[in-house]
Amino acid sequence: MAYTYEYFKVSADYVREKIGFDPEIGMILGSGCGPLAEQIENPIVIPYEEIPHFLRSTVSTHAGKLICGMLAGKRVVCMSGRFHSYEGYDFEQLTAPIRLFKLLGCRAAVLTNAAGGVNLGYKPGDVMIINDQIKFNGASPLRGPNVEAFGPRFFDVQQMYTPALRQLARECAEGSGLTVHEGCYFFMPGPQFETPAEIRAIRLLGGDAVGMSTVTEALTAAHCGLPCLAFSVITNMAAGILDQPLTDEEVNEVGHVVADRFSAYLKRVIERI
Ligand code: HPA
Fold it and tell me: How far is the CA of 84 from the centre of ligand 1 (A)?
């Protein structure tokens, strides 16, 4: 498959035609962030399978639809449910969501995920503003023929999580009722959770939270010059920290408990972007 500029433009043209407005902010919401998507006003909902050249959600807790409308006074396109390499997608395919946002004219991407706490100062229910990432597993989403129209072959990733947006997110944290940290997201490919030994290694290497998503989106945003802000909701302590098994149920349960507070926080951030 040739992932050309025209290939991605087909998806964007379809969405623009359907929604009839130019979105300002593109959002990708991970597990447990569904309630925020429900607060989008005058929503136009497009199931992923309707969008030509787009991908399909295969995870049952991910809704699999694009919700477009107004949120906190901003025109947004919001992916409720995202794509992961563990679903079998090639890393190159995972550029599609951010390239859609870019082609629709968004001026920022806001990403959320559920993650395991690696930093022993974190606890379930905390939030981490991502300030950097480590991705040693799997290929780059920007591998393969470079699409110059999006960005250069070689590109800088020292500020892929935009400092000014992180500053804004720190300011909004006050009074949110959440404990908001800032730290480094360590990507693991999943779908299995990590081993205790992997988590010890990740901590030594500088990871504060661990998860199976987001890094491909942030890299794609850095490539095409789209400012990016990302949050992890710490849904569990990572493997080996507590004497209990890790389950998807626990991840979703904690996600739901903080969802309302996190949604309110995110809305305040969006309002100010
Ligand atoms: N590891 C990887 N991904 C996750 C975790 C975890 O502990 N929790 C939520 N997503």
Answer: 13
Which residue matches tokens 């997110």?
A: 169
Global confidence as pTM? 0.94
For a ligand 1 pocket test, name from 61, 119, 214, 251 the mutation site with the most ligand atoms within 8 angstroms of its C-beta: 251
Query: Of 48, 53, 84, 52, which is closest to residue 67 (Cα–Cα)?
Result: 48
Distance 176 CA to ligand 1 centre (A): 24
Q: What is the distance between the alpha carbons of residues 239 and 243, in angstroms, rounded to a whole number?
A: 9
Per-residue pLDDT of the chain (273 residues; tens, 9 = 90+): 688 999 999 999 999 999 999 999 999 998 766 678 889 999 999 999 999 999 877 766 556 899 999 999 999 999 988 899 999 998 999 999 999 999 999 999 999 999 999 999 999 999 999 999 999 999 999 999 999 999 999 999 999 999 999 999 999 999 999 999 999 999 999 999 999 999 999 999 999 999 999 999 999 999 999 999 999 999 999 988 888 888 877 777 777 778 889 999 999 999 999
Residues whose CB falls within 8 Å of the CB of residue 169, separated by 6 or more in sequence, listed in order: 129, 180, 229, 231, 269
Query: What residues does 68 pair with on adjacent strands?
Result: 44, 77
